[in-house]
Amino acid sequence: MSVLVTGSIGLDSVETPHGKVEDAIGGTAVHFSFAAAHFSPVRLVAVVGEDFPDKFKKIFGSKPVDTTGLEVRKGSETFRWRARFEGDMNEAETLETQLGVLGEYGPKVPSEFTGSETVFLANTHPALQRELLSQLTNPRIVVCDTMNLWIETERDALLETLGLVTGVILNDAESRQLTEKQNLIEAGEAILRMGPKFAIIKKGEHGALLITPDAVVAIPAYPTKNVKDPTGAGDSFAGGFMGYLDRVGKWDESTLKSAMVRGTVTASFAIEDFSIGRSSVVETEEVEKRVKQFAAMLRVE
Amino acid sequence: MSVLVTGSIGLDSVETPHGKVEDAIGGTAVHFSFAAAHFSPVRLVAVVGEDFPDKFKKIFGSKPVDTTGLEVRKGSETFRWRARFEGDMNEAETLETQLGVLGEYGPKVPSEFTGSETVFLANTHPALQRELLSQLTNPRIVVCDTMNLWIETERDALLETLGLVTGVILNDAESRQLTEKQNLIEAGEAILRMGPKFAIIKKGEHGALLITPDAVVAIPAYPTKNVKDPTGAGDSFAGGFMGYLDRVGKWDESTLKSAMVRGTVTASFAIEDFSIGRSSVVETEEVEKRVKQFAAMLRVE
Questions:
Q1: B220/A223 touch (CB, cutoff 8 Å), yes or no
Q2: Rounded to a whole number, what is the distance in Å from the CA of A127 to chain B's nearest CA?
Q3: CATH fold group of domain A3-297
Q4: Where are the domains of chain A?
Q5: pLDDT tens, A34-53?
Q6: Closest partner residue to A220 among B219, B295, B301, by Cβ?
Q7: Burial readout A245-278 (b: 16 or more C-beta within 10 A, e: otherwise)
Q8: Which chain A residue shows the shortest CA-CA distance from B208?
């Protein structure tokens, strides 16, 4: 099995109380892939510009990430994001966004990937999410993300996409904005009425909620003081979560919960350094060890 | 065994998006006692004014709460608190506080109670907490709470009290204010350097953290949409927590974690209605059932 991810690859310039980086590799697809690859092979579909630095073309090294779907588009520019995290680092302050190639047409799913069964549609225009999904012949577990911009400006297109997916992974603010419900369980239930069979609501340092028609599950974040840069935490969560679902091949409540724990742990590594500084070098054994430790922490007599 | 609690009893007037009450029974000692009594007998030490309504003098009914230590002081007035919760109800807006009898000298620990081994010193002037503690002959597990006022105005007195206790239960804002650490694990570690052997940091709807010299444990809140009035949630948490510690008679990491889960569950009942509407009628069997359900939710393969 393998998990297909469609998402952004970009150059991030990020400043936090612990330092800063300029033009570091970033983007949802990158953070997702490093996390998912601990559990299942990844197929990446993304597009960058002609200016994409050569040094980043081999970032996945020997990891099981198939970059056949990475398009380097002539005459276009790579997505860039500049942001700052202050204080408790709970929210990024975006200083500059250059959409570049992400403002053009989307990438194409290569024929080798069209049979993918597990799919993560990272945040992009909901119509583009559907277009990417329509290229797949046998999608079985499809999960999407979205953002405030599309909730505000493309609600109908977004609702159409939500009607096609198995589940969603959103953050608390997005869930509240989408459903106009303050209580996150009510928000999750409202999301289920839009089509998805499960909703994961991320609460940053406060963990995540799972809402299904039969259950509500709350999982804390991995408690840590080792936070240098929260960039990519949510995408790393999605990666660990989807990689695990793909490995198990189902999405019953127990599997979803186990997947949340994997996502929590991959996210906890991602934030330990800027960009992919930590997530690109952490060994799968370390991930598994922290999963065991986290599960033991949650075990109560 | 039994757990001694010293704290306030007052008349609360509270408004939330779900309704309001006027002059309802409240106060830390009341919420604490209903929660703790599910696990261990409670000994209550508190003081009210001459105006304390007769109808509230028997509120504990047949529950194992010994009110020998409840002083009704002639010529004094009962503590009153008026507050409003809005929106997500995460924070109370205090509209009026009438200290009344709480602004005078403290109650006395009756001789029947002075041998108590498990003690909760709810929030009051830290010098008064010490005075109450000094009346006990064999305190073994002593836990205290405090508030922003004492952290700001009576820091030295508070540090003296912290040097005498086994553990503390504070909320996130208090922990940060006391230690000037933003990260809650660092805040917890700084608290341990002040004397306590463990620190519980409450995060409201986001659960609670335990910090010991050897471990950090994060527990989510019980996920619920059934929240009518958050008043007393923290005190109910402390009650369930301390009642359980007293029943087990020790405070190793595993017991502390189990106690947090009991506190989480008693708090989840307290918020289901105004005042003690729910917590005074919930059966211990219901509490035990929710504890099992919550522990199962946290069990991950």
A1: no
A2: 33
A3: UDP-N-acetylmuramoyl-L-alanine:D-glutamate ligase (3.40.1190)
A4: 3-297
A5: 999 999 999 999 999 999 99
A6: B219
A7: bbbbeebeeebbbbbbbbbbbbbbbbbebbbbeb
A8: A220
